[in-house]
Amino acid sequence: MGFEFWMFLSLVYVSHFHFHGLSLAEKAPYYSFVHEAAMAPEVSFYDYIIIGGGTAGCPLAATLSESANVLVLERGGSPYENPSKPDKGNFFPNLLDVSPSSYAQEFTSEDGVYNARARVLGGGSVINAGFYSRAEPEFLKQTGLNEALVNYSYQWVEKKIAFEPSMLQWQSALRDGLLEAGVLPNNGFTFDHIYGTKIGGTIFDGDDHRHTAADLLEYANPYRIKVYLHATVEKIIFETKVFSRTRAQGVVFEDELGKKHWALLTKDYKSEVILSAGALGSPQLLMLSGIGPSQQLKKFGIKVVMDQPLVGQGLVDNPLNFLLVPSPSPVELSLVSFVGITRFGSYIEACSGISFTPSWSRSVAKALAAILNQTEQSSTKLFQEGILNPESLLDTRIRGGIIFEKVKDPISSGYLELRNMNPRDNPKVTFNYFQAPEDLMKCVHGVKIAIDAVYSKSFSNFRYEILSAKALLELIVNLPLNQRPRHLTSAFSLEKFCMDTVMTIWHYHGGCCLGKVVDRDYKVLGVEALRIVDGSTFTSSPGTNPQATVMMLGRYMGLKILQERYFGKYRKK
């Protein structure tokens, strides 16, 4: 490491002391710099304009504000308005909320799979299951990130929002069941990605209160940052000159009242627009701004700034399939606390005691009653209150748990296309689940491991003996999980079960892939003053759950960008 690197480290430590040693930072949720977009001036100027105040955008903005003037434009609202809404017990109700002010904007892929896209300050960290686990070493090597700075950046995140979860009865029994099923060794508690079964981190504290990427704004310099909520960016503004590369100049955004605003970059040539709008938002906004497949842009009358056919390509969603296991014994409320990391490319995770919507709970009860014979209908009593009084299910937790399998590094990939020119609408998305037979085999093997764990000795207190593995599969087949057709043999063939009941784990990524749309510095190829820092650049989903690495990347790239701003072009190693 050369002189530049040590100078850069000194900047890091000086800034860290400045904001934390002198306590200049503000505490969530009392941020003086967060406002509704309607309060924004018609025209304003910043060193960095970040589109998207999500899982990457918040740590990126906090870091850049240490030494530059930063604007964050978030299309959603604040997670702090209702402090208990993001907490553990509201996980599924928030995901299934379809109201205009919800944290999650629903969409259905062209494959017929229901999905959701975050729409709130803090992004996906506000609506996910909270599991915190670092990326595998192979991912970091693939992306060319500096290991020392990666570790420092992870620790920066973890200091604010990562905790060790409590392992109560249901989670402990299933973890032991996974060990019985051969997902070895037992690695105890660790943030690291290690083959076997481990307890990972969580962003829920001991009171089940969620801590999100928005909490990382506590690191921000409150005098150098502005965050506008309900700010929908319509397009990026570019400057095009003969014999010069296209250069980003700023953005046009609209507030919740429909008024337009212009946010422009300062004259400093190192100022940048940075897209952090996620795997759907970043490629969508590039296209709306004129960078993408020219034929598709012309179809909507969009002026082509640069023909880039790879924008929107390489979009991947990790398939999820699950078992719902009713329990004869009481279960705790728990989201993902541990994971089984197999060597064949499947992850096993679980949650228990969760709440559903009334309609979904009725579907579960109806399907289960159809499977159990008349003498065993008493075992459906955990649903009977909700059937008689559906409204009660909004506050009633199901006695049982969900055990799910995620396919690691699927080969199958899809693409994103514009649906219209409205940035508020979700684009058209195709993931091509299980197009590659290798992905299907991973799913089959993973579901077998999940079944083995359910029928292990360790988990025997939390399953009904009357429910066979076939019955559990049949229960899932009869639920309205997606819009895909069912095969008659879905409960008999694990291959058909995987294809018919596939869901999302909300870890979709790609669309602006590293090496194809952005370079190793996350700069958009062929354009000046424009970067993308989010999961749209990933060619694989990092670790078992990506949020830790997405937040790390925001911190990491913020430091790298500051290094480049003050010490010139940085080196990767």
Automatic annotation (TrEMBL):
Alphabetized UniProt keyword annotations = Disulfide bond, FAD, Flavoprotein, Signal
Cross-referenced InterPro entries, in alphabetical order? FAD/NAD-bd_sf (IPR036188), GMC_Oxidoreductase-Related (IPR051871), GMC_OxRdtase (IPR012132), GMC_OxRdtase_N (IPR000172), GMC_OxRtase_C (IPR007867)
Q: Which residues bind FAD?
A: 74-75, 120, 233, 506-507, 535, 546-547
What disulfide bonds does the UniProt entry report for this chain? 443-498
Domain Glucose-methanol-choline oxidoreductase N-terminal, residue spans:
278-292
The residues the entry assigns to the signal sequence are 1-25
PROSITE patterns from the UniProt entry: GMC_OXRED_2 (PS00624)
Which coenzyme or cofactor does it need? Answer: FAD
GO molecular function (one): flavin adenine dinucleotide binding
Residues spanning the membrane? none
SUPFAM superfamilies xref list: FAD-linked reductases, C-terminal domain, FAD/NAD(P)-binding domain
Q: Which family does it belong to?
A: Belongs to the GMC oxidoreductase family.
State the protein's name.
Glucose-methanol-choline oxidoreductase N-terminal domain-containing protein
Instruction: State the organism of origin.
Output: Gossypium mustelinum
* Taxonomic placement: Eukaryota, Viridiplantae, Streptophyta, Embryophyta, Tracheophyta
